[in-house]
Amino acid sequence: MIESNTVYFVGSGPGDPELITLKAKRILEKADIVIYSGSLLNPEILSYTKKDVRLFDAALLNREEIFKILRDNTKNGKLAIRFHDGDPGLFSTIREQIDKLEKEGIKCRVIPGITAILGAASSINLELTLPGITQTVIITRAEFRTAVPEREKIAELAKHGATMVFYLSVHLIDRIVAELLKGGTYTTKTPVVIIYKATWKEERIIKGTLEDIIQKTLKEKIIKTAIIIVGEVIEPSSYKFSKVYDSQFTHGYRKGMTRKY
Questions:
Q1: What is the structure's pLDDT at 79?
Q2: 6-114 is classed in which CATH architecture?
Q3: Domain boundaries, the chain
Q4: pLDDT of residue 34
């Protein structure tokens, strides 16, 4: 049910038009106003909108302009949505938008979407957490114009040796590699994969190691719209099987079999 006087922040999914949620698609189909992330969104997804929808590319607008479009149209009884690539919960600026709208008495609702890392992982049949390798995924971005806290410097995060995922950072691949190695846990042989436009028709996958991924990325001229994944889970030499499905393992739904010798 669509609520009145409400702005919806909607996740589009990673790019494949069929990977948008049913809920997101229903609201997109009914929207009067759609502000979308033109620099990142697969334009094919906008084909779900109705004929008389008004579309605004957020890449051409500043913060105040986006706010006014959402506020004014919502107060005039229109269904306005802020359509974010992937999931609105990651690197999306929804906090600043929601705070400002709520001060104007406008309700806000978030509809999640499949984020790019999950789309990228699916493209290479990757399990991001493997028993015996890592049970942790660190999602971050390289520091450039957006500062990060000292404790979140890449070299510091790299010390964990977990699966690391970088958004919005492929243009800084040389800095990323240097910082990852500086952490002292990853080596030049650590696997890396870069997925350009994950799940799109234009998807490209570059596999390598911290030793050669810079050259491979430069050769392919990938400078944006890509996810970087680093870690042993990409090409594990070995890993442990899950205990949950072990015939000897007992849990709340199944009693393990007694081993007979």
A1: 97
A2: 3-Layer(aba) Sandwich (3.40)
A3: 6-114, 117-230
A4: 98
